[in-house]
Design brief:
metal ion binding, hydrolase, two-stranded antiparallel sheet, magnesium, NUDIX_hydrolase-like_dom_sf, 201 residues, metal-binding, Nucleoside Triphosphate Pyrophosphohydrolase, alpha+beta
Amino acid sequence: VPLCSVRGVPALLYTLRSSRLTGRHKGDVSFPGGKCDPADQDVVHTALRETQEELGLAVPEEHVWGLLRPVYDPQKATVVPVLAGVGPLDPQSLRPNSEEVDEVFALPLAHLLQTQNQGYTHFCQRGHFRYTLPVFLHGPHRVWGLTAVITEFALQLLAPGTYQPRLAGLSWPGAEGLAHPQQPLVSPCQASSTSGLNKGL
């Protein structure tokens, strides 16, 4: 989860996944991140490597603030969000890997904290309600799904007492992380884990 400053304004940095990717998440908004490689020492190194591969953005390890609580995607893979400060930048100056990323954009924390930009999505299967997740609106692209959940984690830490989740109880695997969003210790990287500044920084 990359925290940056755009023209002096604190913001979170997002990517729009390439429409050329295979799988259900192509074209979705995400944070940079991906699966652990065997050579990665831990999830932090996965996040930093994936961020450089996707965005060409080198983030020093000492700029990592810590881990947010792990969550799980629909395939039950573990997603470990890594929060890091990447400093001042212009998203338009980045040269993302076009095979993985179509666009890079930033959303100011002030935008994300405005209640008129916050909503929720009900997910149903075969006509039956399953769960509800947050969504952030009125930016260049809609932020939803796990990326919106991880955005909530970050806002709870970055704006304590200011950001209040609109959904008190989420009934989906990993939703318990909303209650305690911070996990200070780096956990071992396993091949089935997913990390990144989302997934990752």
